[in-house]
Amino acid sequence: MTHTHRTIGQQTSKSPRVAMLLDVQNVSLKQKQAELLLDFATSKGRLNWLKLYYNSQHDNQVIAKENLEKLGFKGIDVPDSGKNSADIKLVFDCTKLFAIKPCPEIIILVLGDRDFAGLIALLMASGKTVIVFARRKSASKKLIKLVGEHNFHYVDELSSLCAGLKPQLKNPKQLSIEADRLSA
Predict the structure, then answer these.
(1) Which residues contact 25 (CB under 8 A, 6 or more apart)?
(2) What CATH number corresponds to the domain at position 116?
(3) pTM, full prediction
């Protein structure tokens, strides 16, 4: 079976560049939610960076990683038993995006815990638009306040959030190749 995901319309070089970073330890997505998340991201601009952070010591995270890679995500293994190890790697990688020229204007973070408040404050102070997706039960009120209610969403609301989007299919392998080329 060929897996595809969606991109929105004709995007030009003037479309904002979008990065999405997903913490699988904090937010696990069902297949449909992941597809809708990609629809949302591509409706914001050109999705050039698509990474997920997981720990290969946990079978459920490996399964999630394998499913999401079929949609074009690049898995970053953080096989460390230390608390917040994936969080630290995600923050490090996100700050490295500033070294890439041109860097993304929109950062979509799929996480939810308050450990990312400093990163979000830094991104916003740098003029980036930050959009956060979280699970309803683990969402930090501090993150909601930081990004504002208009840039904070629950993953279980993706269906209604994406209802008006008119997706066009795009090959996930090509997206992955583009993302690797731009982040190298």
Answers:
(1) 53, 54, 55, 58, 61, 86, 87
(2) 3.40.50.1010
(3) 0.82
